[in-house]
Design brief:
This protein has 393 residues and is mainly beta. The protein has helices spanning 6-21, 98-112, 118-127, 152-163; strands at residues 31-33, 46-56, 79-91, 144-148, 170-181, 207-214, 226-232, 243-246, 249-251, 255-256, 260-264, 272-279, 282-284, 289-291, 301-305, 308-315, 319-328, 333-340, 347-354, 359-365, 373-380, 383-384, 390-392. It folds into 3 domains: 6-181, no CATH class; 207-305, Immunoglobulin-like (Sandwich); 308-392, Immunoglobulin-like (Sandwich), CATH 2.60.40. The protein is built from 4 helices and 23 strands. The protein has a 5-stranded mixed beta sheet with strand order 1-2-3-5-4.
């Protein structure tokens, strides 16, 4: 493909081609120029060639799309496909019909040479200093000439509006197509596949139906508990592997079967709502490696890890000091529940606030609390602890 010097190279090549064909006109001293028709320096006698319009080539205008992928990586070199419109004007002695003779010579030359010869382009590129680096001769398409027929209105607009000079004998041709590419380096083709490994397996998505403490499903799920995840299709078929996600992070299960997975909860797990999910990524490559997101997965299943009040005591303030298991994490809100042991056994709530750091023990103010004995419970992010110790004020 040609570079940005292509348009100038086309103009210079047409000037050279027309110059060689002027001998047929028998007009002595005729010259060829490439100047604006309304400027100075026009030949008398001679031919002037003026590039008055450039337009996208209809056949090629979208041939290079897209040039980049979604990440912006270059797929192919951007290419501009252009048609060049040239106006040929003729000058000379009207009484000797020099203009008509020059027109005949140009029409014959372009009819006999409907394309720009590559040899001529190469000669122009080598002999013209500012076109030495042009690569017009390497483009795949030859530059073809097609005469343009102007209507009277188009001819009037060209001379009175665009050029704003008196009309002289003229004709026009379109040179098509000029293909201009950037000098960007396009990545090479992808490496060939050396080996193939095809696998097929039925897709039976895992489904979680229940999560409970184990071995006794009637007990609550507390810190340090083991849980049993019940459902169907929990064990991955051959060619994939079962992965368990706890709150979105991978954990290692103790036992995996088609109907149940057991898991020892991490000691660092905070109280409150939790989710588990079973995924079955495919084993791909050599050696096989699990590829997340390639296989079926269950919907996340929610369960609650209940907090425990391991110790409680009244402190001055008045306030109640409680020790929590697991500790309240930064950002968790703690609410103290005090249940009166005497009738009518009302429940009072005291806000311990949102924690700014991880704490295992904290004091919660209990303003206006009447003397008596109270059962202590807490709410941590909405998870209510079991009945805890009793404090007496």
């Amino acid at each position: 493909m040609s570079n940005a010097l292509a348009i100038a190279a086309v103009t210079e090549s047409i000037v050279s081609l027309v110059t060689e064909g002027l001998d047929a006109s028998l007009v002595t001293g005729a010259q060829v120029t490439a100047l604006p028709p309304d400027g100075s320096g026009l030949p008398t006698p001679g031919v002037n060639i003026f590039l008055y319009q450039v337009s996208p080539n209809k056949a090629y205008r979208n041939a290079d799309l897209p040039t980049r992928d979604a990440q912006g990586n270059l797929l192919r070199k951007p290419m501009a496909a252009l048609d060049l419109y040239y106006l040929f004007t003729f000058y000379g002695d009207a009484t000797a019909r020099e203009q008509e003779r020059l027109l005949g010579a140009v029409a014959l030359t372009l009819q006999a040479n409907p394309t720009l010869p590559r040899s001529l382009i190469q000669s122009i590129q080598s002999s013209t200093s500012f076109l030495n680096t042009s690569t017009l001769d390497t483009q795949s398409e030859l530059i073809r000439f097609t005469p343009i027929v102007f209507s009277l209105e188009e001819l009037s607009k060209l001379w009175s509006f665009l050029l704003k000079i008196d009309y002289v004998l003229s004709t026009a041709y379109v040179a098509s197509v000029v293909l201009i590419e950037t000098n960007d380096i396009v990545p090479g083709p992808a490496l060939p596949v050396l080996s193939y490994n095809f696998t097929a397996q039925p897709i039976a998505a895992p489904v979680i139906t229940a999560v409970a403490a184990t071995p006794d499903a009637t007990k609550p799920i507390l810190a340090g508990s083991s849980i049993a995840i019940s459902g169907t299709n929990l064990a991955a078929p051959s060619g994939s592997v079962t992965q368990l996600l706890l709150n979105g992070s991978a954990v290692t299960a103790n036992v995996v079967s088609a109907q149940e997975i057991t898991l020892a909860l991490p000691a660092t797990l905070a109280a409150g709502a939790q989710t588990v999910q079973v995924t079955q990524p495919l084993l791909l490559g050599a050696p096989p490696v699990a590829h997340p997101g390639t296989g079926p997965s269950s919907a996340p299943f929610a369960f609650t890890l209940l907090p425990q009040v391991s110790a409680a005591s009244p402190v001055a303030g008045p306030a109640v000091s409680v020790t929590l298991n697991p500790p309240a994490q930064q950002g968790q809100r703690v609410i103290l529940l005090l249940t009166a042991q005497a009738a009518p056994h009302g429940v009072l709530l005291f806000d311990g606030g949102t924690q700014s750091a991880t704490v295992a023990s904290l004091s919660i103010a209990t303003p206006g609390l009447a003397a008596g004995s109270y059962g202590v419970q807490v709410l941590v992010d909405g998870a209510e602890s079991l009945s805890g110790p009793v404090v007496t004020l």
